[in-house]
Design goal:
about 55% strand; mainly beta; 8-stranded antiparallel barrel; Porin; 11 strands; about 220 residues
Length: about 220
């Protein structure tokens, strides 16, 4: 998945450079969001880490509304989320649950990683002095999901590394509102997921709120 993100970022960069010489130079932007996920509605016995870093990379095409400072934009991007917790994801009778590891179990990594292909859309305001505001909505389709564990073997014995990519009951779609505010190409960004990470019948109703910094240098 890292290779996909690197390739996607490279393609956006090349497209942005080409756009600077084209007739829509001011209409095409690429960006990178570096954010942290705050997990909501986690089960009572499951603790999600305070720091759950993630990244979005995207390209957007905007169209100005006449001669105003307001424009509409739509694009394509990748969003990667890393949700760290003290729980082991298990499935029984088509119901997914998170079971906490025993306190004696020591681990360095225990996370659920999700990657989405996103379609963001925004209404933007850009003042003459560089202040930017954007309200939007984002819909995404899940293209990769896996858990990663590195630490003590809960069953005993040597330390182990496990990467499990066959995960049932993960929601294929996600959607929610977005917000950005900043100055020139540095912005604060937020995404509030209205959809849960797992399907409604899975038994887990967690959803992330993403808050971070957006860099739109192009």
């Amino acid at each position: 998945m890292r290779k996909i993100i690197i390739l996607f970022t490279a393609l956006l960069s090349v497209t942005a450079i080409q756009a600077q010489t084209g007739s829509f130079a001011s209409k095409f932007t690429t960006g990178i969001d570096i954010f942290n996920d705050f997990v909501q509605d986690s089960p009572a016995n499951i603790d999600f880490r305070t720091i759950n870093p993630g990244i979005n990379v995207y390209g957007m095409y905007s169209s100005k509304i006449k001669k105003s400072n307001i424009s509409l934009a739509i694009g394509l991007g990748l969003g990667m989320h890393n949700l760290h917790s003290n729980g082991s994801l298990t499935d029984s009778a088509n119901v997914s649950t998170l079971t906490p590891y025993a306190e004696a179990v020591d681990y360095k990594i225990n996370k659920l990683q999700l990657t989405y292909l996103d379609i963001p859309a925004e209404i933007r305001f850009k003042s003459d002095n560089g202040i930017r505001l954007a309200l939007g909505i984002k819909a995404g389709y899940l293209i990769s999901a896996h858990t990663k564990y590195k630490g003590d073997n809960p069953a005993g014995g040597r330390s182990i590394k496990i990467k499990e990519g066959s995960l049932p009951n993960i929601s294929k779609w996600r959607f929610g509102p977005t917000f950005q505010a900043g100055y020139k190409w540095v912005n604060l960004t937020a995404f509030y997921s209205l959809s849960t990470v797992f399907e409604e019948t899975a038994g887990i109703d967690i959803y992330p709120i993403s808050v971070g910094t957006s860099l739109r240098p192009f």
